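Hello everyone,

My group is preparing for a crystallization screen and wants a predicted model to guide construct design. The compound we'll soak is 2-acetamido-2-deoxy-beta-D-glucopyranose. Before spending weeks at the bench, it would help to have a computed complex in hand. I've included the protein sequence and the ligand's SMILES below. Output in structure-token form would be ideal because that's what our pipeline reads.
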Amino acid sequence: MKFLTQISAALALLGSSAMAHPVFDELMEPTAPLKRAQAALSRVNDFGANSSGAKMYIYVPSKLAAKPPVIVAIHYCTGTAQAYYSGSPYAQLADQKGFIVIYPESPYSGTCWDVSSKASLTHLGGGNSNSIANMVNYTLNKYNGDASKVFVTGSSSGGMMTNVMAATYPEMFSAAIVYSGTAAGCFYSQSGGTNQWNNSCANGQARGTPQVWAKMVFDMYPNYDGPRPKMQIYHGSADSTLNQNNYNETIKQWCGVFGYDYTKPDTTQANTPQSRYTTYTWGDHLVGVYAQGVGHTVPIRGSDDMKYFGL
Ligand SMILES: *[C@@H]1O[C@H](CO)[C@@H](O)[C@H](O)[C@H]1NC(C)=O
Ligand SMILES: *[C@@H]1O[C@H](CO)[C@@H](O)[C@H](O)[C@H]1NC(C)=O
Ligand SMILES: *[C@@H]1O[C@H](CO)[C@@H](O)[C@H](O)[C@H]1NC(C)=O
Ligand SMILES: *[C@@H]1O[C@H](CO)[C@@H](O)[C@H](O)[C@H]1NC(C)=O
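Reply:
Good plan to model first. Here are the tokens for the complex, ready for your pipeline.
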């Protein structure tokens, strides 16, 4: 696949320190070959305040819905907007369904997202998360978007950022899908560093109670008591980049936020949505999918994502 060649080339360029970061089995289901997207990916320069320097790319399909929904699709470490655009199914799905896709691009070398600084882990804190929220507002205003249908998803570092977006801008998103990420705040840097790698989280040693993890979310937007996005969390049991314990810690976090009992899912469905995946649900706001034998990252499930987003 052309996409995998690009990843290998990027990894080769980045050298050995980046090699400790995500390496992909596959980004998408191999059974779903992509048609070419019909419109083009374009760069947007003036989307509002951008003190963190993140870049904005956008995919606007040629047949746009009257009040288009918006999906924010966030790339992995070593990734770019272009790579996630060509390696994920969202642009082709936008051609079918008329929504807009925003592909933010990290400004850092190594191009992981900043999910470690106080700025990014705070509502209106001026970090990467704030830049992405500004991209969403720009898009809603410019294209008369449907503010009640704004969604966020991402893989790996983009999955971590998806949890962070859900925690810092809960008023903005109605649903979020995390592929192989970590809990919001799990990559927090004690020294306040921006875009820091956090070994204890990556290695699955950062453990907390649902209350501790939930407090991190509440502290990212103090006094917020409005609606929050529903969350779907995918993780593979054989993830050697972001240890599989991060699945449970993320589930505990959102159970703590929504008041669900983490030890008692409402339903447990074996071999769902496919063989060796188990799907757990809590109330109407949390779904966990634990993929037995799957490494980093769990392949994106485009048509299931559309169902979860109600598109
Ligand atoms: C955001 O930062 C990037 C990188 O510095 C820059 O290229 C871009 O023009 C900035 N956009 C805005 C809206 O400030
Ligand atoms: C986005 O726009 C809404 C509505 O105008 C506003 O309330 C909100 O504060 C904006 N969010 C950001 C991150 O600027
Ligand atoms: C890594 O994150 C955890 C929280 O998940 C935090 O307790 C720890 O101090 C962080 N490590 C560093 C080096 O900042
Ligand atoms: C997650 O928690 C469940 C329930 O406590 C436990 O059975 C399972 O082994 C845990 N999984 C991981 C990967 O730690």
